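Example 230, ligand zinc ion.
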Amino acid sequence: MKQLFTSLLELFYPSSCEGCGGSLVKGEELICTKCRYDIPKTNYNGEEENPVEQIFWGRVRLHSATAYCFYMKTGIVKKLLHSLKYKSKPEIGILLGNFLGTSIHQKPKFESIDYIIPLPLHKKREHQRGYNQSQMLALGINEIIDKKLDNNTLYRSVETKTQTKKKRYERWENVNEIFKLTDEKKFEGKHILLIDDVLTTGATLEAAAHTLGKVKDIKISIAVFAYTKS
Ligand SMILES: [Zn+2]
């Protein structure tokens, strides 16, 4: 019944592409084939010493880091992430998570992952948005690589103000102690995959990795959907 209703609905109101606004054809989900193709992929696929790994060199010890695509000031990636964050479209996050998950699936550096952890938002902000966009990505990744998802052991204890206008050092100070763990033992000897939507300076991910890094014998990897090349 529900399926019939959906088909009827689509007949009268064909769903449109989240990237270009064009109509989707049968078999396309949220994004049309052309937009999907046009996403500027990094093709790092979790390769060693890729530019995303290099961002964290000398800052925090990681097992690996990767990004699915480049973030540009204009274009499809910006549009998709904007809809994910501000237009109440969590389903976009799951689809983008599928893309990211596929890019690291069965890659040697990511095979030993135990837990997928979305970068936490402060509860207040999550409540305003209705969901955490990184958690949607994590759900999408989990559909592909099938590891345990954990979204309540690492949490954000301080709400940070908007970071865009601050200098790098101030940003670092601002985020350095904002993450905490409810249970350190849980991650002892485990390999954690931290997930975020966009990587720019890496300060927030660094802060989270810094907190996780205090756990004994932990291995930390990072996967982001998009990365701003400097
Ligand atoms: Zn499109």
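Summary: The chain has two domains: 1-38, 39-227.
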